[in-house]
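I am still getting used to backbone structure tokens and would like to learn alongside you. Please make up or recall a protein chain and show it to me in full. Would you write everything just below, so we can both look at the same thing?
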Amino acid sequence: MASDIKINLELKKYISLTEIIAEMFGSRCEVLIHDFSNPQHSIIAIENGHVTGRKVGDPITDFALSAWRKGGFGDIKEDKMVNYKTKTKDGRILKSSTLFIKDKDSKIVGCLCINYDMTGHLMFEKTINEFCTIVDLSEQKEEETFVKDVDEILENIINKAIEEINKPISLMQKEDNLRVVEMVDEKGGFMIKGAIDQLAHSLNVSRYTVYNYLEELKAKKKNNKLEKQYSDNKL
């Protein structure tokens, strides 16, 4: 809302814009115009002044004063600064934008400022983020598959183990097959009935070969355990 004081014509053009912006974005959006000819009482128009508690006749901000003194924002002296963070005295977070207004001689005569109270949005965002926080099992190389048939679970376990080897089955060597059997075992695949036969079929080996692989892995684990105990005792 503009006061009855004399207003620079260049600034006056923006008054209706303050009203439109404020009406469009609602009561959380403060829009105002500063007249730099009178820094001590620079606000000549303001909508939704309750956001920062200001009114017509209040002074320029330190941020606007500093940018005006430097002739623009940043190193390249831009005429605008968009979506920067500000804070009210009572701690509310605002998203702010400022546009310098120039006269016909390119002299800065004032600015249009928009301050949107983001506090409620940020609180809601925090609540939503907390609610939506999940553990991404894929980052841990783990996945949960929802199926209706236990055979599908076993098939998925075997297929993922084979994919880890990253070779065609026809080119896989014994050590590759051993690794597949080990991964299937680690995933609990052999707790499912028929796992030996299904894995043997997938690897194109006999079921007895799979049994031998399991015995070999069992012996390896036992040896590793004994070696660890020996090492610990030495320490």
About this structure: The chain has two domains: 9-121, 137-223. The radius of gyration is 35 Å. The mean pLDDT is 87.
